[in-house]
Every structure is written in structure tokens, then in C-alpha cells.
Design brief:
303 residues, alpha/beta, Arc Repressor Mutant, subunit A, Rossmann fold, 2 domains, eight-stranded mixed sheet, 17% strand
């Protein structure tokens, strides 16, 4: 992806170059298909005729979408959609109705996983899960949508392990029982956590103790538990590193906190970053069955 469009589906102006207008038309054709549709784009000759453009203009538009990652070309077979990128763009469009802007990136959803409307309802459900209640050490992804859960974990006296962006500075370990109540709000933020926590490199990661539960945001999740991130695959890197260092194992549940519009009901052939056991939205809890034969989580009853 080039990252030049804060909204990848923005309609070009009438004065935009023709290839950009064609690029937008092809993109809308691709995003309008069912997410399960993996058939190639129509042949070049058919697209030239239907769009009323030259071969050179069409090819430049397609090359742009290939560079951005939405399309891929297979010699002798045609031009295909990259399913995970299509899912991202479809979900980004949905999120614009409910996402909360970032202080740095505004609504450029390619840059961050946003907080969203009614997220506090999802947080309440997460806090009612036995996996959360019984956890001493919680891994919480550095997403905007998980900031409040980092604060709740600190208030509960839990140890919170948070990776820095791209692991450029390793992980930060925050111990809720050592942080004053007045400081917890700042400590839960990505800008403030390093003031109150301890940075851990891979060699020091065992100091965090064994992680009991993993909580993450997502760009999208599927009903069968595929976690689709922003494309950088940081979560997969972080989990694999922790697994290699015996900080997590296959019994540790992964909980994704997302808005309902981020849940994909269709079967897609995307490349997931990890398997999610539980999806929590403001209105429901979805058990994906990815680990139910190993560990069953329950929502604690209020009655």
C-alpha cells in the first residue's frame, strides 16, 4: 500500500488524471464483490471496452492497485484480488461511521486501529470473562481501542505487557500494584506507558512472567477466528516471539475487541495473523471454537 490516501475509496475529482479515475472504478468493482469471491478480474479487452479507456490507461491503473496491495497479477492466469487487503478496505469504509479519530493520524485508518463508539460495552464484557478475572499478567496490544482495558488492568493490580510500535523498543511491562492511582490514566496510554513501566528486550521478557491472556484490537475478524490486522503482521511477530521464549503457550486465549462492523460473516481466504478464541463487540460475544477443545471460557454471571 502506498498510504497516500487517508480514505482509499475517496472519489477522485473530475480534474484528476484519467488513470486515477479508472483506478477508482476498478477498486469499486473489486470492493463491491462478495468477500468470498476469488475469481480473477475480467480480461483486459473486456475492461477496456466497458470502461472506455486505452490499454495504457487501464494498465497504469491496475499497476497502481498492484503496488498498493489490493490486486496481484499472475502470469498467464490473470489479475486477482488480495483477499486480506480487500477485507481491510471494506471494513475501513464501515468503520468511518463509528471510529474515533487519532490525535496524530486523524481518520487515516491505514495507520492505526481506532477506538470506536460504545467500546466501553465491549470492555465490560471482557472484564466479566473468567480469563480476565483470573489473569495476573495480561498482554494488551498497543491499539487505540484497548487503552481503556489497559487502564482497567492496572486498576485491578494486574501486570500489563504492551509491545512498542513494531517492537522498535521491545516491550513495556507495567505493574498495576506499583503505579499510583493518579498516574494510571497516563500509564495506560502509548505516549505515557514508558514513564511508568520497564522496557524489556527479548532477553528480559521472562521477567514479565507467564502471560495468562492476550487482548487485542483488529482491523477485522472473521466468525471462525481469523484476526486480520493492518498488514504489518506485528501481532504475529509478538506472539511468536513470546511463544519461543515460553512466555505464552497454546493454552493462552486470544480475545479480540472490535466493533460489530469489523466482524466478517463471509468465508475469506485472508492470511490471519493469529487465531482468535473469543470476539467481543459492544453487542455480543462470539466464541470462535479455535481452542474450545483445550480451554473453555465463560462469562461470569452477574446473578
Amino acid at each position: 500500500m502506498t498510504g497516500r490516501f487517508s480514505n482509499p475509496q475517496a472519489v477522485p475529482s473530475d480534474s484528476a488524471p484519467l488513470y486515477e479515475q479508472v483506478r477508482h472504478q476498478i477498486q469499486m468493482l473489486v470492493l463491491g464483490r462478495p468477500l468470498s469471491d476469488m475469481t480473477p478480474l475480467p480480461p483486459e479487452s473486456q475492461l477496456i471496452e466497458s470502461l472506455g479507456v486505452s490499454r495504457g490507461t487501464l494498465r497504469r491503473a491496475i499497476e497502481d492497485l498492484v503496488r498498493e496491495g489490493l490486486l496481484r497479477t499472475v502470469q498467464g492466469s490473470g489479475t486477482f484480488v488480495n483477499p486480506d487487503e480487500r477485507v481491510r478496505r471494506v471494513v475501513w469504509n464501515r468503520l468511518r461511521e463509528v471510529a474515533r479519530p487519532d490525535s496524530r493520524f486523524d481518520m487515516n485508518l491505514q495507520k492505526f486501529v481506532p477506538d470506536f463508539a460504545d467500546r466501553h460495552l465491549a470492555d465490560a464484557t471482557v472484564q466479566s470473562l473468567d480469563a480476565w478475572i483470573n489473569a495476573d499478567v495480561v498482554f494488551i496490544a498497543p491499539d487505540n481501542s484497548t487503552e481503556a482495558l489497559r487502564l482497567h488492568a492496572l486498576a485491578d493490580g494486574k501486570a500489563v505487557l504492551v509491545p512498542t510500535y513494531g517492537l522498535t523498543r521491545g516491550f513495556v511491562l507495567l505493574k498495576g500494584n506499583l503505579i499510583k492511582a493518579v498516574d494510571r490514566g497516563l500509564a495506560a496510554t502509548l505516549d505515557g506507558m514508558e514513564r511508568f513501566g520497564k522496557r524489556l528486550g527479548p532477553a528480559d521478557l521472562a521477567e514479565a512472567g507467564h502471560v495468562d491472556v492476550i487482548v487485542t484490537g483488529a482491523t477485522a475478524v472473521t466468525m471462525n477466528g481469523q484476526h486480520i490486522g493492518g498488514g504489518q503482521r506485528y501481532l504475529a511477530l509478538e506472539i511468536n516471539l513470546m511463544r519461543d521464549l515460553d512466555v505464552v503457550n497454546d493454552l493462552v486465549p486470544v480475545i479480540a475487541v472490535v466493533h460489530d462492523c469489523q466482524v466478517i460473516a463471509e468465508t475469506v481466504q485472508a492470511k490471519p495473523e493469529c487465531a482468535v478464541e473469543i470476539i467481543v463487540t459492544p453487542t455480543r460475544i462470539i466464541r470462535c471454537g479455535t481452542k474450545t477443545n483445550i480451554r473453555k471460557l465463560t462469562v461470569k454471571s452477574n446473578g
